[in-house]
Amino acid sequence: xxxxxxxxxxxxxxxxxxxxxxxxxxxxxxxxxxxxxxxxxxxxxxxxxxxxxxxxxxxxxxxxxxxxxxxxxxxxxxxxxxxxxxxxxxxxxxxxxxxxxxxxxxxxxxxxxxxxxxxxxxxxxxxxxxxxxxxxxxxxxxxxxxxxxxxxxxxxxxxxxxxxxxxxxxxxxxxxxxxxxxxxxxxxxxxxxxxxxxxxxxxxxxxxxxxxxxxxxxxxxxxxxxxxxxxxxxxxxxxxxxxxxxxxxxxxxxxxxxxxxxxxxxxxxxxxxxxxxxxxxxxxxxxxxxxxxxxxxxxxxxxxxxxxxxxxxxxxxxxxxx
Length: 322
Hints:
By secondary structure, this protein is mainly beta. 5% of the residues lie in helices and 43% in strands. The strands form 7 sheets. Strands 1-2-3-4 form a 4-stranded antiparallel β-sheet, with no helix packed on it. It has a 4-stranded antiparallel β-sheet with strand order 5-6-7-8, with no helix packed on it. β9 (120-125) and β10 form a beta hairpin.
């Protein structure tokens, strides 16, 4: 289960704990960065952006050829979010928050605090000014000025001290937060206040995406995946997957379905009606002789799916039904 610890950042950075590092160190340029640990991938206009180990930030227009951007930190980056084609943020260990306004070519530090010994695990902006970042042990930071200043949130939700693993903006504008011990919380005011929800699952949840106009799909350990038409109201329905692998990442597909990735290089699809189609996806990149490990994130790209994980980038093609 190495990837479960590394990908989610729950094993706090040993380098940060071993020394009082007050200033960040830039990431090294690595020719094989696209084949090393990557934790999150997202679309930014006409390109893809991925982040991962040692502060690596990569960009691509086709999912096959990748260019590394200079990064001002060498800490593990755990998530990346773009509000539009140019404005983006990345988060990671040492409570790092990076920002770009040119589509990911150049990045600057907005927040960096190794003294916390805590990783940030996800970030969402609802406007150019309003953003929320979440992380381990109830860490939550918020900004009202585009990230020029960040304030730590203290509330009943954060005082529980549970790991906040993922944050998703639903189609009605609400935010949904998932985490360990079935953590499930909903916000209708862009993350300023939170309603703790009754969870359909008592163990760790790692991913959430919109489902319908007001609903969501959530996923976690041992293939536990649920959907609801109204995320803030009880009524979660379990989805039975062919493989009971832990789900670490989700993405909405162009046809309204959802792609799920996780342990043991698993890629599974849920159709827009909640059914599981009999489709066969195969790895279309040359990965022979490489232990692929687990996947943490995916994005649909043209007629393919591009995922990232322990072995870096993997591109999938739809081949034929079972």
